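quick q for whoever's on today - can somebody do inverse folding on this one?? i tried earlier but teh output was garbage lol. tokens:
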């Protein structure tokens, strides 16, 4: 495969192309690009040699092409990165730019949570114990995922006929209860089509996502 070059390298002297081609798949589509590095400033904090992927090609139907933003700033673990490079947050830590190794994400409604991976001990639909996590489940929070990779016990009807009757879903974590309402876990395509944000998974760990984060203020340390 012929190596791509950075489209910014000639215009900005601080942009450096690595010559490494990148292919990334995500929920709605995929892209091809090139790995480059740049000096980045976020909120008055400047970091050097920050790697990022320049997207050079994607599918015409990719909904991100119509998004009102220019890029995605990931905060995930480097080991889960498609390029195995440091996120902006990890670079800030390694370059000594932050006093406390803590960041939080606020999407909507207040409460508190912390850490990447954690143990969840129970899931209730309304007041009914689902018994699917009574022995403990390993869970992590993914801010880049719209769906929760947790087996669905809500019994949502695809035609939306019972969507207004469904109860809160409550997760028991460290002895505390964290609830998401139907407005958090139901995606209404139109008035006659509803999708649950809970999706079946065979992974050894489960994933909470933006639907959870809208209801729960998440803090990472």
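ok took a stab at it. sequence:
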């Amino acid at each position: 495969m012929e190596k791509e070059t950075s489209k910014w390298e000639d215009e900005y002297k601080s942009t450096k192309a690595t010559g490494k081609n990148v292919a990334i798949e995500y929920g709605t589509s995929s892209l091809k690009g090139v790995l480059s590095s740049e000096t980045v400033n976020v909120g008055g904090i400047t970091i050097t040699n920050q790697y990022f992927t320049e997207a050079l090609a994607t599918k015409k139907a990719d909904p991100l092409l119509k998004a009102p933003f220019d890029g995605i700033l990931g905060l995930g673990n480097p080991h889960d990165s498609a390029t195995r490079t440091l996120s902006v947050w990890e670079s800030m830590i390694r370059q000594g730019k932050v006093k406390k190794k803590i960041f939080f994400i606020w999407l909507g409604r207040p409460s508190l949570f912390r850490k990447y991976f954690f143990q969840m001990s129970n899931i209730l639909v309304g007041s009914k114990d689902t018994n699917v996590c009574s022995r403990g489940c390993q869970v992590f929070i993914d801010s880049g995922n719209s769906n929760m990779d947790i087996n669905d016990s809500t019994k949502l009807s695809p035609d939306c006929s019972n969507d207004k009757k469904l109860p809160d879903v409550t997760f028991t974590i460290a002895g505390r209860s964290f609830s998401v309402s139907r407005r958090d876990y139901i995606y209404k395509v139109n008035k006659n089509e509803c999708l649950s944000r809970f999706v079946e998974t065979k992974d050894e760990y489960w994933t909470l996502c933006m639907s959870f984060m809208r209801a729960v203020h998440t803090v990472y340390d």
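fwiw Helices lie at 88-94, 182-185, 210-213. also The radius of gyration is 20 Å. so keep that in mind when u check it
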